[in-house]
Design goal:
By secondary structure, the chain is mostly beta strands. It is built from 1 helix and 11 strands, in the order αβββββββββββ. Strands 1, 2, 3, 4, 5, 6, 7, 8, 9, 10 and 11 form an 11-stranded mixed beta sheet that branches. A hairpin with a 2-residue loop joins β5 and β6 (84-89). The radius of gyration is 17 Å and the shape is globular.
Length: 158
């Protein structure tokens, strides 16, 4: 049984090794699975998604960031109010409460890549920097998923 499990683990790594998301640490912040979606040609915006766990005792804030692929990188919130979907920029960013995991995902808080300089293609990695109030700038790579992805590919594996 053990050799079967080992073989399965080796096969999974061989097949999915390039698709595995990278995690990052900045002080008490654990930054998991930065990802974005492929864009159609000519698109001027793209959403970015990530989960951040604050293992510390004090709050921090994700303020925005930067990337060579975009003129601006901001934090936005999508919400449904009275049956109407709205999106707004959050100039103060999003609070990362102590001991809590904050998920930036489709339909909620997200990173907004604005003034895209080129098309994003599925399977590529996009370099960027996330800016935190206390932890400072943190270089990350966003994994580009399919146009309609709802979560990073790794989240779908069982």
């Amino acid at each position: 049984m053990t050799s079967r499990l080992a073989s399965a683990a080796i096969a999974a790594l061989a097949l999915g090794g390039t698709a595995l998301a990278q995690d990052y640490t900045a002080g008490p912040l654990k930054i998991e699975q930065p990802w974005t979606r492929a864009t159609p040609a000519g698109a001027k915006v793209a959403g970015g998604y990530v989960a951040v766990t604050n293992t510390g005792a004090t709050p921090d804030r994700l303020l925005g960031g930067s990337s060579d692929i975009a003129g601006k990188v901001e934090i936005h919130e999508m919400a449904v109010n009275n049956g109407v979907m709205t999106m707004r920029g959050l100039p103060e960013g999003v609070e990362l409460k102590p001991g809590a995991k904050t998920e930036l995902k489709p339909g909620g808080y997200h990173i907004m890549f604005m003034d895209l300089k080129r098309q994003l293609k599925e399977g590529e990695k996009v370099k960027g920097t996330l800016s935190f109030e206390k932890a400072g700038p943190v270089p990350v790579e966003f994994s580009v998923q399919s146009v309609g992805a709802r979560a990073p590919a790794e989240a779908h594996k069982h």
